[in-house]
Amino acid sequence: MAKIKDIKFNNFRNFTDYNISFDKKLNIFFGKNGCGKTNILEGISLNAKGRGIRNSSLCNLIKKKESNFFIKNNLRINNNDFDIKIYAENINNKYKKIIKINDDFSKESINFLNQSISYIVFLPEMERLFQASPSYRRNFLDRLIYSSKKNYNRLINKYKKLLIERIKILQKTSFDNEWLNQVENEISFLGMEIYQSRYSELNSINKIINILNQDHKFKFKLKLQMKDDFFSNDLTSEKYLSVLQDTRNYDKNYGGTKIGPHRSDIIGIIDNDFDASLLSTGQQKTIVLMILLAQCYYLTNYKKINPILLFDEIGSHLDLNNRQILLDMINRFEIQFFLTGTEKNIFSFISTNAQFYNITDI
User: Fold this and answer.
1) What does each C-alpha distance from 138 to 36, 143, 145, 147, 155 come to in angstroms?
2) Which top CATH class is 126-305?
3) Region class of 102: left (phi > 0), else alpha (psi between -120 and 50), else beta
4) Backbone angles phi and psi of 217, in degrees to 5
5) Residue 359 near residue 32 (C-beta atoms within 8 A)
6) Residues of the chain with CATH 3.40.50.300
7) Following DSSP, what letter does each residue of 127-192 receive, concatenated?
8) 185, 136, 181, 190: which is closest to 158 by C-alpha?
9) What distance in Å separates the CA atoms of residue 326 and residue 332, rounded to the nearest whole number?
10) What are phi and psi of 314, to 5 degrees?
């Protein structure tokens, strides 16, 4: 279990020097747009592998006219305190994120941190999840999988690199056929693992939403499905490999690989009747919150993982249904929450003790 006790920013985004201590349960940041609420969540998210909730270039994290940023956290992990330092290192005009755990940046220390901290994130654009592009929905699902399967990002990245390598090979005038066979063999193996991870995640969410509905009475019945013309339950890596080989000429001319999990979409069926893309923004937010509630339930009850929740601008479109789901999360789980909104009174429905922070005048 990981919880963030405090954080210090130096030349990070709009912050020159800013220190803040956190409640172990519920932290709410409010203030006008552009004051830095999201920047705080982004700084917190940098404790994990990657470039944070915005996936920004490291150079964009540095305050204007400054040479670097510095973040210092105090994390409590399984009743032990750890000092986490984060900054960028410029090597040949390319920035690399550096994380030190108690001044140690060994691979073992970084792996320990990655295994110890897990985030569940809500961003404002998720209110249009089912009207966004298929790639956005795939990334949304993949982030959920990564919250419990920490090697999953490496799997996705390796798969994407192999797809690029395959097309480069196919577009050569001559190439080593054995090399191509090896690349396609790896693609089929990794592609199957991605398919199976996504299929399992969707089934898990559907199952848990049905469990939660027994005492929650959600406004909608939701069933998530993977839409993919190639994938089926009886698909094997051997069949996958065979189709890759058969579509080489097509893919060479097309400039991309026709089949695979990079072509999938995630759809939501509402009340066994219509697609979730037809819902309003507020209704889509309800669906997203249902999914995130189910993921919290899955992590805490099945995987014994206590995630940290980063919910940015969660205060908009908070109708009665969305308030009930958010309250359910807060009351049901002993985890740490970080919420943002434009005004304090947006969160007046929360009865649990919360620490409020006015970010406007920083």
Assistant:
1) 28, 9, 11, 14, 14
2) mainly alpha
3) left
4) 55, 65
5) no
6) 1-118+308-362
7) GGGGGS-HHHHHHHHHHHHHTT-TTHHHHHHHHHHHHHHHHHHHTSSS--HHHHHHHHHHHHHHHH
8) 190
9) 10
10) -70, -15
CA 169 to chain centre: 32
Query: For the chain, what is the radius of gyration of the CA atoms?
Result: 22
Assigned CATH class of 1-118+308-362: alpha beta
| pLDDT means over runs of 10, the chain (362 residues) | 94 95 96 93 95 93 94 95 95 91 94 94 96 97 96 96 97 91 98 98 97 89 97 96 97 95 98 96 96 97 96 90 93 96 93 90 65
* Alpha carbon distance 215, 353 (integer Å): 24
283 with 271: CB under 8 angstroms?
Answer: no
The pTM of this model reads 0.95
Parts of the chain belonging to CATH 1.20.1050.90: 126-305
